[in-house]
Amino acid sequence: MDKYVSLSVIAFIALASLWEFLAGRNSNGKKSKEDWGIAVLASVSLAAVQRPALVFATAWLGSVLVPQFEGGLAWLQEVYFWPVLIAYICIEELIHGGAHWFSHARRMRWKPLLYLQQFFKIGHRPHHFSGTNEGKGEITVTQTFVEHWLFWFIMPNFWFQFICLYLGLTEIFLYGTVFKGLWAAHNHVNWNYDLYFLNHRWAWVRKTMYALCHVLTFPTQHHHHHARGKNSAKNMCNLLSIYDWLLFGTLAIENSRPTQYGWKQSPQEEHSIWYRYFAIDTKKLG
Predict the structure, then answer these.
(1) What are the DSSP calls for the chain, one per residue?
(2) Chain-centre distance for alpha carbon 87
(3) Mean pLDDT by groups of 10 residues along the chain of 286 residues
(4) Membrane-crossing residues (predicted)?
């Protein structure tokens, strides 16, 4: 079942990547060979290693700690499919948004929390590299699942997904995860269709789109999260910007593309996908 989740999102990423290539969205330094390399490495590893390992770990822990709960909520999706699906998406997005916020937040003052936060920051850092340090890089769809290998194991929303799967919410997991994965991928494509509506000549179109941006996250909002500047710690949610607006205080709605994408990279990060993906700098811990 889980392989179909991965394959559906990978198929969208492949098609969007082909469009970006044909449209010239990868040329002239917008994407480096290291960007291509780590996108392949991270995606294959996620599908072949991290997700299966998390499924196994959740099932094993469940069988040891609470075997009586295996499949115990299957009846919910049979009786209340749509309410449970919406609840699943909202809860998963909240957990993801909170962990993402934690990865970008100011340094925690309490030492144990700071130590944990450094793992999140190290784990999430590769997601914010675009191109080289020349500053020509732009976001592309293959960046969707680019993270340090550690990140997928410590992100609590992944554990939430597979706990729901263990509890018998198989269809909820499938449809919810596919929908969220596709929306996240679409926000990383190098397009900005939302700007057409945010800058429309009719005021009611502009205002409607501006209102929608308070509820859902659109590509340009997420592109600004990938920018090098004031909005880099904004727009934490991949789907429900209402959490950015009302809970995290991190909503940013702009009517133009970012002027520069991507964080500054160390020499090792700029030239080695293996360093980006595997290295854990212990000097940054604690």
Answers:
(1) -HHHHHHHHHHHHHHHHHHHHHTTTTTTTTS-HHHHHHHHHHHHHIIIIIHHHHHHHHHHHHHHH-GGGTTTTHHHHHHSHHHHHHHHHHHHHHHHHHHHHHHHSPPPSSHHHHHHHHHHHHHHGGGG--S-TTS-----GGGTT---TTHHHH-HHHHHHHHHHHTT-HHHHHHHHHHHHHHHHHHHSS--HHHHHHT-SSHHHHHHHHHHTTTS--HHHHHHHTBSSTTTT----SS-HHHIIIIIS-----SS--S-BS----HHHHH-HHHHHH---GGG--
(2) 19
(3) 66 89 88 94 92 94 94 95 97 98 94 93 95 91 94 96 96 94 95 97 98 98 94 96 98 95 92 94 62
(4) 6-24, 36-60, 80-102, 149-169
| Domain coordinates in residue numbering, the chain | 2-187+270-284
Instruction: Identify the CA nearest to 55 among candidates 275, 78, 63.
Output: 63
What per-residue confidence (pLDDT) applies to 286? Answer: 46
Instruction: Please count the residues of the chain.
Output: 286
Other C-beta atoms closer than 10 Å to the C-beta of 211 total 9
Indicate the Cα dihedral angle 219, 234, 115, 184, nearest 10°.
Answer: -20
Scan for tokens 């925690």, then name that residue: 108
Q: For residue 145, which of 49, 230, 233 has the smallest C-alpha distance? A: 49
